[in-house]
């Protein structure tokens, strides 16, 4: 990529980010497989030990574009308690952020079909900034002081109402308004409160086909709402196909294979719908989930969430 294209791309990135009012936390197309990262009450809800890894390469072809890796493990502990660990490594431009949180959930049974889970999470993140890395539109940014692994604590909470066929959840992943890298101002700014609303339904539309529409709404204080909607089909309990749309950002295709009763592999591709579409080849996400199911669990149909 020559200098002229780099400058144009950098300007477009700033303009696009300004339009979206500055995306602060990492975003995922496979959010339906990464629920605990936004709602601690999800911990242990699958009923067995679960490991999930996710790799996201955003806006491939643009220097300094976001790159994110996540890993989580969660499990029920007894009949009412769930525990989980969530780790996120995120890089954008000159900034590196590493998140690590312990998640705790407590579940009460409302009736034969529905349960309500309460969740809390605690941990922290480290923030590093190297202003010599990448291209900046703000020339003064080059002279700002670098940051090396500054620790910032985090505390969050969530509610998760769920059954075998539906779920809805509300959460605040972090109550603290600490530092973060602002990619619009290209400086260190205060973190804003994030509110997440998630929901989904599962319908049987045949003996071997299930349909799941899902929704994620994110509100960042001082910014407009962000909507993610998706529609996925599960065929023969092994193949998952779907589409997704992120408001004023991208359209996506999703595919997943239940390789074995314990292993699920997923992939998604995002096509950018903003002005950046001319300067990148899209966004790729890979997801791998491994579950230690009991003999009883193996006999049941795969969970769709």
Which band does the percent of strand residues land in?
over 45%
Number of strands: 17
The main pleated sheet reads as:
14 strands, antiparallel, barrel
Write down the overall mean pLDDT.
Answer: 84
CATH architecture: Beta Barrel
Number of helices: 2
Order of helices and strands: HEEEEEEEEEEEEEEEEEH
- The chain-level structural class is mainly beta
Radius of gyration, rounded?
A: 20 Å
Poorly predicted segments: 3-23
Counted up, domains total: 1
Describe the protein in words:
This protein has 305 residues and is mainly beta. The chain has a single domain (3-263, 272-299), classed as Porin (Beta Barrel), CATH 2.40.160.40. 7% of the residues lie in helices and 54% in strands. It is built from two helices and 17 strands. The protein has helices spanning 3-19, 295-299; strands at 49-57, 67-77, 81-92, 95-109, 115-129, 147-162, 166-172, 179-182, 187-190, 194-201, 203-206, 209-220, 226-235, 239-246, 250-258, 263-272, 283-292. The strands form two sheets. Strands 1-2-3-4-5-6-7-10-12-13-14-15-16-17 form a 14-stranded antiparallel beta barrel. It starts with a helix and ends in a 6-residue tail after the last helix.
